[in-house]
Structure formats: structure tokens, C-alpha cells
Fold this sequence. Notes:
Blueprint: H1 5-13, H2 18-38, H3 42-51, H4 60-69, H5 84-95, H6 102-109, H7 120-131, H8 140-147, H9 151-168, H10 175-189
Helix pairs in contact: 2-3, 2-7, 3-6, 3-7, 4-5, 5-6, 6-7, 7-9, 8-9, 9-10
Amino acid sequence: MEYTRDELIAAVSSGMPAKRWKHTEGVMETSVLLCERFGADPQKGDLAALLHDLAKYWPIEEQVAVVRDNNLNTDLLQHDKQLLHAEVAAFVSRRDYGVEDPEVLDAIRYHTSGRVGMTLLDKIVCLADYIEPGRDFPGVDKIRDLAEHSLDEALIAGFDSTISFLIEKRKVIFPLTMLARNDLIQGLKR
């Protein structure tokens, strides 16, 4: 079954608190803006942003079960449970909402961690999640300024911010995020 945008909005917004839905709307708006600025498909950016947090408020046990039962990336189970919702959202977007576009599914899957070889859409959705208008953390304005001109520079600054925060809190850093950051830096040097 194919869902209309309005049906997806109703389904996703009903599964999260109003404040998180406002964040999702901000990510959608920012994603479309970044797609237009950097030459990606705004419809794909909007769809990935709409679905990116659909599993965020599912019970952790349910997210773990989806990962285990469907042979998804079980490496995630060894890390912060906050990473699970992205993998689960990509899976559920396909299973429950009929999203087949691998580019959209990957942008959902990697919006929290990044990955080596990020596509343009991966970068846009990940960055939109960092800089949507409702975000307020030290350094967000610098990342927004960088996003005016360079997707890669802005994402590197976003990853640096996340990594610094995790170090400060003495939390484990998901290796894929470090690899994604390093890949972006190496890409700028090429």
C-alpha cells in the first residue's frame, strides 16, 4: 500500500510527543532547504526527514527486538540505545509504509551516526537533524553558518560537537561516527 504524505504525517506524528513532532517538522523544512541549496531531490529529503524519528519513542525493548528479529545491524546493540531508532525507522519505513528508495532508507538509517561514503541525501538529512530551527546547543549557530556554504564543513562541525559532548560525558563513541567524520575530512583534502 502506498501512503500519501498526509497519511504519513498522521501516522508518524501520532507516535511521538508534540515537541518531537515539531522537531521533525523543523528537520523536514531544513532538509528541503538544504536539498535546494546543494542540489538534492527535495521530495526525497522531505520524505526521509518525515520518517527519520518514527521509532524514537518506541520502547527500547521493542527497538531491540526489531533489530534482533530482522537481522539488522546488531553492532548497534553494543552501543548507546539512542542509535537504534534510526536503524529501526529505516526498516519500518520499508515494511510498514512501503518506502523502497534505498537512498531515502539510507538517509534515515544513517541520520544519527553518519557513515563512510555518505551520499548527498545522507549528509542533508543528518545535518538537517543537527541544525533545524528548534535546536539550541552550544555551537549550533556556527554549524548553521557553515551550512550556508559547505555541507561537509557543517557536518564535520556537527560530528565534532557530538564527539566532544560524548567525551565530556564519558560515553562510548560509535565507531561509524568517527569513521564518517574522518572520511569527510579526507574528502575535503582530496
